[in-house]
Amino acid sequence: MDNDRTPSADSPFRPDPGARDAAPQYVLPLVVRIERAAPPARTDALETAARAVLVMLADERSAGEGEWARAMRDWQDARIRKVVRRARGAEWRRAEALPGITVTGRSAEVRVFPPVPLDGWPKDLARLQVSGTDLDDLAPVPPADPAAPVLWLNPALGMSAGKAMAQTGHAAQLAWWDLPDEARAAWRATGFPLAVRTADPSHWPALTAGGLPTVRDAGFTEIAPGSCTVVADHPALR
Fold first, then answer.
1. CA separation, residue 11 to residues 38, 76, 203 (Å)
2. What are the protein's GO molecular function terms (predicted)?
3. Cα separations in angstroms, 98 against 26, 64, 91, 151, 152
4. Strand 195-198 with 150-153, pairing
5. Which of 48, 77, 163, 200 has the lowest tally of Cβ within 10 angstroms?
């Protein structure tokens, strides 16, 4: 599959219309649990969303003749859209009743669902709020382990938590596509450890020029088309 390391006319993130736009459009739904009294930390939510995308990609139901395989193929043949919605209380319980996978972090819970047509969301997901999802880190975020995969956020862009969760999901997916089979298996076996951090402004140019998987946003929401949002720095890809 194409990715944005070398943007092409058929890239799933290319802002201009291309061959992928002619395919039926699907979206990967993610729902983050945000209870009023105990919202998750922002960084943990971003990391959990990225791991949720990887768990969905690696699930046996997403491959071969699995029950989600056709939807996954149709989704990956078009633009790789992801939309993050938020839920609490009864909304979250209804979302959990739908087919999908819940991934937990230290404080975050994110449920990922098999792709759906752009205009064909299940009603219990379609009614959930999508805009204005924002979170904070109330405690200092420790430095990332340089020996582990890190998804580096563009320090010049301000994104809501929901937008950033989708972008880190894109970056994790691009890294997954680029990894050799042995590295994929090792990452999966260890539970997809990763960190999400905002890059130092002085380090950002080197990251974007280093040949690592890089997300350039299509510009549907919040930021300008073509904006470079996340670089996926996996040790096996350096």
1. 39, 11, 26
2. hydrolase activity
3. 18, 22, 11, 29, 32
4. parallel
5. 200
10 pLDDT band, cuts 50/70/90, is: very low
C-alpha–C-alpha distance, residues 38 and 35, integer Å: 5
Model-level pTM? 0.89
**Helix axes of 42-58 and 161-178: crossing angle, nearest 10 degrees:** 40
Write out pLDDT tens, residues 191-209.
Answer: 999 999 999 999 999 999 9
Helices and strands per DSSP (H, E), number in the chain: 8, 9
Pairing of strands 26-33, 81-87: parallel
Residue 18 — pLDDT band, cuts 50, 70, 90? low
pLDDT the model gives residue 79: 78
Beta bridge partners of 30: 84, 112
Give bridge partners of residue 74 from the DSSP assignment: none
